Structures are given as structure tokens and as C-alpha cells.
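B., you asked whether I could sanity-check this one before it goes into the benchmark set. Here's the sequence:
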Amino acid sequence: MGSGIREIHLLYSLNGIDWNVRTLWVLSSGDVYDGIWSGFIPLDGSTPESLSFIVQAVDQAGNVAYAANKGQSYSGAESVTYLPLVIKND
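And here's what the prediction gave me:
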């Protein structure tokens, strides 16, 4: 089994220029192996659409991984995903 997650950081920007860091916390319903992590970003009058963020995780051994949406960063804007419809005729 791996070493488990030690901490998760959310690097975020509300204007695309200034970046801030928030540390997330594991909710009481889980642990470092299968927990749900949560956090809060103060929008300070900004809209969710202006939010850009990158997620960084550090395990107990100090290894770091990050998700940056292939360099585009993630957005706080609501997104819509269309899935294909498959119909089977018997």
C-alpha cells in the first residue's frame, strides 16, 4: 500500500495574474487513503467564472503530484458535458 496523502493544496487565481494557495483538509468520513478533501476559496466579490485553479497533492513520503488541466488550469465556471446516447434494439 502507498504512503497515503499528507496534504493537498489548491493554487488559485481570481484574475489570472495573482495566485494564492489554500490547504485543503480531509473530512472526518475518510482518511489519508480514501478520504474526501475539502476547502474554501473566498471569492471576494469575484464570480466563479473568474476562478482558475491547480491542484497539488503531497504524500507521506514527500512525493508531489499536480493536476493542471494540461497547462490550462481548471475553471470555476460551470461546464456541461454531453455524453453519447447508445440505444440497443432487441
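One thing to flag: Residues 14 and 47 are 8 Å apart (CA to CA). Otherwise nothing jumped out at me.
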